[in-house]
Amino acid sequence: MTTRTVTLLDVARAAGLSKSTVSDALQGSGRVAEATRERVREIADGLGYRPNSAARRLRRASTGAIGLHLPHTATRLDYYMNLAFGAVERAQEEGLDVVLLGTPTAAHGPLATRVDGLLVIDPEAGDTAVPGLLDAGVPVVTGERYPGPVLCGAVVCDNAASLTALLDHVRGNGARRPGLLAPEGDSAWAQALRSTATSWAAKHRIPVVVRSVPFVATPGEAAEATRLLLAEDPAIDAVICGPDGAAPGVLGAAIAAGRAVGRDFLVASCVDGVATRTSHPPITAIDLRPADYGRACAALLCDILAERTPADAIRHHDWALETRASTLPG
Amino acid sequence: MTTRTVTLLDVARAAGLSKSTVSDALQGSGRVAEATRERVREIADGLGYRPNSAARRLRRASTGAIGLHLPHTATRLDYYMNLAFGAVERAQEEGLDVVLLGTPTAAHGPLATRVDGLLVIDPEAGDTAVPGLLDAGVPVVTGERYPGPVLCGAVVCDNAASLTALLDHVRGNGARRPGLLAPEGDSAWAQALRSTATSWAAKHRIPVVVRSVPFVATPGEAAEATRLLLAEDPAIDAVICGPDGAAPGVLGAAIAAGRAVGRDFLVASCVDGVATRTSHPPITAIDLRPADYGRACAALLCDILAERTPADAIRHHDWALETRASTLPG
């Protein structure tokens, strides 16, 4: 007995729709009304249509790899390396290699012939490589959302919840006048930090004094901002530093101002890393669990490639609060 | 007019040798006596033999990628990320992708069908993945030498010269009794640090007090080693820390012992990174220039793949001394 494979065309004929509409509907591309999408899925299920597994196998055989784009400008390289290793580990479980993408060059052929899909981590509005990646003709998953209209999957972190946890933590350890060094700019992250500080202050009737520092602030810039903050407002008894890697500057400025860090002055960071773990004292920080984040991004892309989930699915990634001596009164 | 391409077989016939011997001779594989190698090269040049460019193009077309293996256990992730970006940049100039390799799994096909060549960075004797990589059937370049007999290219750093520069620097800034926290184990790097300390001490008639710390020491372990060292030998007026990322621990212990770091007590690190740049004060260190190191490794592999250089070529990579406040008496 021969079983004929049900094709996309069979589903399209049964539904009275074009092949591309049926494809969009089954891939959850968002261009198709939800009612149509449901009807197409029912017809496909009724016919026993297996979503495109032959084409998927073919596509995998042709490249067997996914691409990984990381921001080059950032200072958080140990974060991105951990993330990359996580993505490699997860992709390997599906037999896929991870190609580390550099800046686009003419030397290369089109991306779609080289990879089955793309991971684009922390896509910044200013990164000129990103639009081309999002338009390369293969499924894309971004780590954090891309600030523009685009059809892709995303794995996102709840930055409002993690800053709330830090503010609750310093309050629980005695802080009554916390300051926040917030990154400049209108990135989703910077906006989340500022609006969270405002809403937390209103809820607890505790003012949060916000000062701006560069998006990629150096420890020196954080130190100078802290020095000015303490000179203007000596009642400040805690400083939370937004930008990654800059919190040791807060520590240095507080010590230089004669504050007893961890006892009458608390220091914390919105991003954990080498700098916060190796400082003296070590600094309380939000661990964004980069290896697991990389795994989650790769897992979503694999699910999209295997058509186990819609191409525009959004998933959430958990963080953890790492409390250390900089906020723990002995 | 048609020009017939001179093949490896033509060279073998003219030389009266087997094709594999001629291939070994032209690739500089080391299995062929130097005299034979020279004779084969002369014959090949005389016939106008172009080393295997057709086969090379074919091989490139089949994968278009090189693999990159990094140690996962190490803490120096920002170092390796910089190195990886450098390698990607250089490989791109030849139209090659860089595949980030994870742990070997059964899910994957043989490496030789997926990549044209391999970069194996800091191959450690204990890394179980390394022997398989070195035997994958494609050209290999290691970053630092592999501690075992193997035919591959390597890019190496002069660790004796960089420690000598650090010792000369602290001596030039007043240190008369330096200590060295040397990594345990018999890696090429650990051995170079210990033997250099001994020879420098003999040359300058200045004792260098060497203490062992773990190969991947934490700042806490470096702090404890420093505390013990200062308790045993209060005349110590400088400490150079071997393991990457641990030097802030030396700094913390020195400050806790009441030493004025940068003035009457100098601190330096054999490896630069986030931890040394962001500490207070920032710590003098050897910058191993990881991005350029990655470029150099990829460049050597590209040269070997293009048969522009022998498969066992060794190249040297330069470091730079970054002097900072921890060793500069104001």
TrEMBL record, chains A, B:
Xref: SMART domains: HTH_LACI
Keyword hit for DNA-binding: yes
Lineage, top ranks: Bacteria, Bacillati, Actinomycetota, Actinomycetes, Kitasatosporales
Family annotation (Pfam families): LacI (PF00356), Peripla_BP_3 (PF13377)
UniProt keyword terms in alphabetical order: DNA-binding, Transcription, Transcription regulation
Protein name as it appears in the record: LacI family transcriptional regulator
HTH lacI-type domain boundaries: 6-60
